[in-house]
Amino acid sequence: MRDLLESGIRSGLFYRSFFDQLGQAAFLLDRTGMVFTGNPACKSLTGYDPWQWERKPFWSLAIPEEREMVRLQTQFAMEGKPRPFCTYLAHQTDYAVQVRITFDSFQTDGEVVGYFAIVQEIMGTRNDSESCASADLSKEGVFIYRSGSLQYANQVGVKLVGAPHLNRLLQTPFFSLFHPHDIPVVDDMLKRTERGETVHPLEIELVRMDGIMIDAEVLGTYAVISGKPSCYLLIRDITERKRAQEFLQNSEKLALVGQLAAGIAHEIRNPLTSLKGFVQLMQKDGMRKAEYFSIMSSELVRIELIVNELLVLAKPHEAAFETRDLSNLVSHVVALLETEAILRKVMIQVIFETEMPMIRCDENHLKQAFINFLKNGIEAMQGGGEIVVRLRCEDNRAVIRFEDNGVGIPPHQLARLGEAFFTTKESGTGLGLMVSRRIIENHRGTLRLTSVLGQGTTVEVSLPVHG
């Protein structure tokens, strides 16, 4: 194996073209993770000559508390899943150096014969180990969870949860680090990860051991450690990110309030003007014509429609989630609109591309959103056409696509869909899509619209299976 590596270095002129010219420290590893050699910058970083590390595991360069984490990251790289990470290397003069490590493979004749680790110092951390830990820039804790308990945490993780040291953290019940309302989803994520399933990152509230609560993101990865299935967790502090998002959301809300106020005044003034005119006419002439009442009634219905849709947007969403069969839910919505579609010469076809799972949802609100998408599609095909509803499950998410072959929407109008009182329909208020988007977001889902002028429009809804 080492002969292959030596041959690769010679044939690729690796030492001259890479090691000698690279200002950053670089270690060349064999396929077992042992150090083969290093460039001159390694000595300035660690104080050791490269030959002093030869035939030793790469992770032994780290300080003791970080070695298991570095070993796992090295293992991931050798499995073809390299990822940059931050850690601490031990310096010869007995202090820790905070670094960022990036792995890549070294190949010769198309065969991987080794790996190299590019090690970049995070400046301003050359001090004792304690100050180095407090100067950590990654804010990413590494935790290893197995068989119902925490087995390991790196130095950043210990500091993140406010523990005085690793042993104290390992003696603390792991779930006490999470807010009670997040415990069920974290427990579900851990169980699924240990089974080897792919799990999307979670945003949770972390309860530090000093009682301070912070916003955090948790990402779980399956790993085999000491021959046992384990959960390799990355937890990062996202408090600043959440504050920035909240600031932007508040700014957007203020802008939206202004738009809504102007839109409401305009949309309600028109029917009110009609009502006022007819009332004055009836008072003056004393005439009570049937057509007057018909027009007044339709104007009142329009005002009521606008107010009802605004109430859906304004009032907080009350969670009434229950487990429902998504297939039945969509089929019921299609059945409700089938008569209207037939009258407009529109055919609705439902295609189940995969078996659909049960989901947790507010059934009535989700039906409201789906009805809106279908009605928009039906009304977009004035001379008849076809709507195809496709359902599939991918990556633990249910995807529902509403595809029509109507007139399509120009790009400049598509970008404005969802704005209050902007609509492409003569009698629309523009609030329907805004309400539907709010409903999908309340289900932790996403909504995406695409359209080609003259070919049709597609609305794609993605909902989490484990809501």
Please state the structural category.
alpha+beta
Strand order of the largest sheet: 2-1-5-4-3
| Rg from Cα | 31 Å
Mean pLDDT value: 77
Which stretches are low in confidence, meaning pLDDT under 50 for 5 or more residues running?
Answer: 9-18, 124-138
Give the count of helical stretches. 14
Distance between the termini: 49 Å
Residues in helices, as a percent range: 40-55%
- Beta percentage is 25-35%
Shape summary: elongated
Strand runs, count: 17
**Assembly state of the chains shown:** single chain
Would you give an account of this structure?
The protein is of the alpha+beta class and 467 residues long. 40% of the residues lie in helices and 28% in strands. The chain is built from 14 helices and 17 strands. It has helices spanning 2-12, 14-19, 41-46, 67-78, 129-134, 155-160, 166-170, 183-194, 239-285, 290-314, 326-343, 363-379, 411-414, 431-442; strands spanning 25-29, 35-38, 85-90, 96-108, 111-121, 140-146, 149-153, 202-207, 213-225, 228-237, 322-325, 346-352, 358-361, 385-394, 397-404, 446-452, 456-464. Strands 2-1-5-4-3 form a five-stranded antiparallel sheet. The protein has a five-stranded antiparallel sheet with strand order 7-6-10-9-8. Strand 3 and strand 4 form a beta hairpin. Helix 10 (290-314) packs parallel to helix 14 and helix 12 (363-379) packs antiparallel against helix 14. It is elongated. The protein starts with a helix and ends with a strand. The model is unreliable at 9-18 and 124-138 (pLDDT under 50).
